[in-house]
Design a protein that fits this description.
heterodimer; A: 230 residues; alpha/beta; Rossmann fold; two-stranded antiparallel ribbon; B: 7-stranded mixed beta sheet; 7-stranded mixed beta sheet; 27 helices; 36% helix; disordered C terminus
Chain lengths: 230, 767
């Protein structure tokens, strides 16, 4: 399977996504330059973490106008998988690939730590290797990660099973004490209506090597590999 | 030589103007003699920028020459943008530490942010990819709102810049002491990685080659920033806030990628950061290193404001700019790389055969200096050094006579008090604002004895740490200097790394005062002794003088940044206890020393007594013992014993990792003849707490290295808590109680006080 990783000016998670795909999974990986219109035949497109365009104006607000985004949106419309991580999640929301928005953390501080998240949907193309309610340890590193959306959007996300991950206690319980950035309903990751676009604030691509900690991000990549034949 | 005439509108060169530029009458005469005439206004600006303390090291150079700078691992020693050492497998590490104290004192957010930006540029201009950032910070007591504002602002500034760039901030230390009231210390260290054959130097060469200004455009910000850093802070400093530069980490990220692409492209022969004193300093230093002439035309420099004079363009400290020497005929290729990253690049000058440093504005010569005299003929000063009476008096204090407080009858009270003192307490509140995991190399992040980063594609890792106990240096600068190096080495060795080399950031007061100069020369001598004994040469660094506020000088604080190498990933060792039932072994010995301790400062409010002795041969033995035991596979955890002494170090081994806490049963009967408080809280040097499944083997290795060592206890479960038998007492305390004191102290202070105001007011342009 071929992973295409978009490099916006200011992306810094592109390197980690590349190495997760190329080293941890042993799959083909290519960088996609923001000024190009070429997805280089990628099967999966990753919108990586970072500070695209410095996050000036608003996180992700400028990146959505990059030439490459036209192709990314078209790729999504074809039903192909788009994995939008951290700043990529913000870009995906700005580009209309996902509903809602990511606001400043409730503490108003940048938060970098390992959190526990509960798998809410264990049937999507990104998550079927996990089991329902499995608790994962994943790193977060963001200043703007508080997910919000209109009540009717939240209701439809919840009703359709499109909440993919929720911040939780290590035992899987949900509560304010574990809602690290103050997201609505502790939402850490969501799927689009067709289930082929996943946006999440935690970094699965930083959790694929046992040397660096529990490799709980691997399940996400293995789900993609198992689910999308090359 | 060309004829140099004053520009229309230049102010007349008067003694007042000379003084405003920070030059003494003697220095002015020296310039006039060099030129054979009086300097023009533009030339005066250039000299002022290059001959201030920050750029010229005029009070420190003679002393710095005494430091050991050579060793088998050293590829590049002092004098370049950063030092470089080889770690094996063809991989080299570039690293350097630098201060941004003065800007941070008046504008903490931008001051700290641009400090991070500057040191990053120093490392990537060597051709190295930055892989880690560290910070060594000193603030006054958190009891003061001003200090809380400075602490919060500096942490935010470091975080916002480093996080955006995508370089993990992995380690450092933060100390709080009233000695730093009004003059915080903000030292940033950057570590980068390169292949040995990718090294590039900042040495102008090749007559006919072009000089390009690349990166951001030049504005009027930061003019005379370097001179500002070369004077004492005072009430008037606030008015110099405009001299603080403003950082743009997004542009820096682009500049980082473009520079590395440029260096790998083969189109350039040299690259240099435009840091302190901007274009002036970078161009003059590159020319001097290459021993060539240069000519620069200021009218070709891309500017962001109209009407800038040559004086302003030369002295601007606008951030995120580089000076590049491109091969003749390759200028367009260089520009193409910069344009790809949406940055500017313009040819602004040439390397010439004529031995001269010349600046023109169009065709008019506005400044000209012969050869590299500007850099090489800078004055050097040796100041009489004499120890201050206060230091002598404090050191002589009989601290053993200080009566114990009634509460101290239960040492558990003292332990909790020390664990909650901000210098010892967990700094997670700060570290959590730094992205420490980006680039996925961080094996041990903030909170460990040293940070550990794996080197991708090899079986190696590096360990990095900064250290310095300024209180020790204030009480005895030579011993304090030695301890700073020894402690950094011990910390690095605790992770399984062989200490390799250091960079240093020497923060002192006003060097023209004999007692300050004494501290400086003595501390450097101590550093030198330790570096020679531990075979960790100095590869570069930075001197920051004039760290004084109206209330006096800061503690002399020579911060050591240490790099070590771990030859196998299997040897990476952590600081906290791993297995219930493991033996706890103390490498090193207890003494009756309590002078200069955190215990005296926190519990009794006393800074006094002689700091603990530092036997550097013993230190080497401890490090060798540790590394041999780790390589033999018999060390489960290793933790340096430092601030707060043995009792605090044991508590940290139990609960500093909140997700894997343990207990411990400790018996200190062998030291019954010593005062209990010295055994528990004294800071005798050369000590490490090791937990092991094979204590006998550890003790045997220690004996082979002539290092005293003893089994002092056993790792217990968290529910069993901590038991210490000392003297006639038995101390009992729960693990969670220790953890609560340690983990919540700083959040309690920072989240309930002026925090909201701080966040609202300090919201900078990077937010």
């Amino acid at each position: 399977m071929k992973f295409g990783i978009v490099t916006f000016p200011g992306s810094n998670g592109d390197y980690d996504a590349y190495h997760a795909a190329a080293e941890a999974l042993g799959e083909e990986a290519v960088y996609l330059w923001h000024k190009d219109h070429d997805l280089k035949d990628s099967d999966v497109v990753i919108l990586p973490g970072g500070f695209s365009y410095g996050d000036y104006l608003r996180a992700g607000a400028i990146a959505r106008f990059s030439p490459i985004m036209t192709e990314v949106v078209a790729h999504a419309k074809r039903g192909a998988p788009i994995l939008a991580i951290c700043n990529g999640f913000q870009v995906a929301c700005e580009a209309g690939l996902l509903p809602g928005a990511l606001m400043r953390n409730i503490s108003r501080r940048f938060i970098s730590r390992v959190v526990t998240v509960r798998v809410e949907n264990a049937t999507s193309m990104f998550t079927h290797e996990y089991f329902a309610a499995q608790v994962l340890r994943l790193p977060i590193a963001h200043g703007d990660g508080r997910y919000i959306a209109d009540p009717d959007v939240i209701a439809s996300l919840e009703d359709d099973g499109r909440v993919a991950f929720r911040y939780s206690a290590p035992d899987g319980s949900i509560g304010d004490a574990y809602n690290v950035n103050g997201s609505v309903n502790s939402i850490a990751g969501i799927l689009n209506e067709s289930g082929n676009v996943l946006g999440l604030m935690p970094h699965p691509e930083r959790a694929v090597d046992p040397l660096l900690g529990v490799p709980d991000g691997l399940g996400l990549f293995h789900s993609l590999l198992a689910g999308v034949a090359a | 030589m060309s004829e140099v005439l004053p520009r229309p509108g230049d102010p007349a060169i008067t003694p007042e103007l000379v003084k405003e530029h920070g030059l003494t009458p003697g220095e002015f005469d020296r310039v006039s003699k060099m030129l054979g005439r009086a300097p023009t206004f533009t030339e005066l600006g250039i000299v002022s920028a290059l001959w201030n303390e920050h750029c010229s090291y005029k009070h420190s150079k003679n002393t710095l020459r005494t430091l050991p700078t050579e060793g088998a691992a050293v590829i590049q020693g002092p004098g370049e943008n950063a030092g470089v050492v080889r770690i094996g497998d063809g991989i080299a590490i570039a690293f350097k530490i630098e201060s941004h104290n003065h800007p941070s004192a008046i504008e903490p957010y931008q001051g700290a942010a641009t400090g991070v930006g500057g040191i990053l540029r120093d490392v990537f201009t060597m051709g190295a990819r930055p892989i880690a950032m560290l910070n060594s910070l000193r603030f006054g007591s958190l009891d003061s709102a001003r200090n809380r504002y400075l602490f919060a602002g500096v942490v935010r500034g470091i975080g916002d810049y480093g996080n955006c760039i995508g370089v993990p901030t992995v380690a450092g230390e933060i100390v709080f002491d009233p000695a730093y009231d009004g003059n915080p210390l903000v030292n940033a260290m950057c570590v980068g990685m390169l292949r040995e054959d990718e090294l590039i130097l900042a040495k102008a060469q090749g007559v006919g080659n072009s000089i390009l200004c690349v990166g951001a455009r030049t504005g009027r910000d930061g003019i005379h920033g370097a001179s500002f850093a070369s004077e004492d802070l005072s009430e008037a400093s606030e008015a110099k806030r405009p001299r603080v530069q403003v950082g743009d980490p997004f542009t820096e990220k682009l500049l980082l990628e473009a520079s590395l692409e440029l260096i790998r492209s083969g189109h350039i022969v040299a690259i240099q950061d435009m840091g302190a004193a901007g274009l002036t300093s970078s161009s003059a230093e590159m020319a001097a290193r290459g021993d060539v002439g240069v000519t620069i035309d200021t009218s070709l420099v891309p500017v962001r404001e109209t009407g800038m004079t040559p004086y302003e363009i030369l002295l601007s400290e606008s951030q995120e700019r580089m000076l590049v020497v491109a091969l003749q005929g390759h200028e367009e290729a260089v520009r193409a790389i910069l344009f790809k990253w949406d940055l500017t690049a313009e040819v602004i000058g040439k390397v010439i055969a004529e031995p001269v440093y010349r600046v023109t504005e169009g065709d008019t010569v506005v400044a000209e200096f012969p050869g590299s005299d500007l850099v090489t003929q800078c004055p050097r000063y040796d100041v009489p050094a004499r120890e201050g009476a206060d230091a002598i008096r404090l050191r002589a204090m009989d601290v053993s006579a200080i009566a114990e407080l009634p509460e101290e009858r239960d040492p558990a009270w003292t332990m909790l008090k020390l664990l909650a003192s901000p210098t010892i307490a967990s700094k997670r509140w700060a570290f959590q604002q730094y992205d420490s995991t980006v680039r996925t190399n961080t094996v041990v992040g903030p909170g460990g004895d040293a940070a550990v980063l794996r080197i991708r594609g090899t079986d190696r890792a590096i360990a990095v740490k900064t250290d310095c106990n300024g209180r020790y240096v204030a009480l005895d600068p030579r011993v304090g200097g030695r301890i700073a190096v020894a402690e950094a080495a011990r910390n690095v060795a605790c992770t399984g790394a062989r200490p390799l080399a250091i960079t240093n950031c020497l923060n002192f007061g006003n060097p023209t005062r004999p007692e300050i100069f004494f501290q400086f020369t003595e501390a450097v001598a101590g550093i030198s002794e330790a570096c020679i004994a531990l075979d960790t040469p100095v590869t570069g660094g930075n001197v920051s003088f004039y760290n004084e506020s109206p209330t006096g000088s800061v503690y002399p604080t020579p911060v050591i940044g240490m790099v070590g190498v771990i030859d196998s990933l299997e040897h990476i060792t952590r600081s906290t206890f791993r297995n219930v039932g493991d033996a706890i072994v103390l490498l090193g010995d207890c003494t009756d020393e309590i002078g200069g301790s955190e215990y005296l400062a926190t519990v009794h409010g006393v800074t006094g007594g002689a700091p603990p002795g530092c036997d550097i041969v013993r230190e080497r033995g401890v490090i060798n013992t540790l590394l041999q035991a780790i390589q033999a596979g018999v060390v489960a955890s290793a933790h340096d014993c430092s601030d707060g002494g043995l009792a605090i170090a044991i508590a940290e081994c139990m609960m500093s990792d909140a997700e894997a806490t343990t207990g411990a049963d400790i018996d200190l009967a062998p030291w019954d003849s010593l005062p209990d408080r010295a055994v528990l809280f004294g800071e005798a040097q050369g000590r490490v707490i090791v937990s092991s499944g094979d204590a006998d083997r550890v003790l045997q290795i220690a004996a082979e290295n002539s290092v005293p060592a003893r089994k002092i206890g056993v790792v217990r479960s968290r529910d069993e808590g901590l038991t210490i038998r000392v003297g006639r007492q038995k101390v009992r305390i729960g693990t969670d109680q220790l953890g609560e004191a340690y983990h919540t102290a700083i959040p309690k202070i920072m989240n309930t006080t002026a925090q909201a105001i701080v966040i609202d007011e300090v919201e900078g342009v990077l937010a």
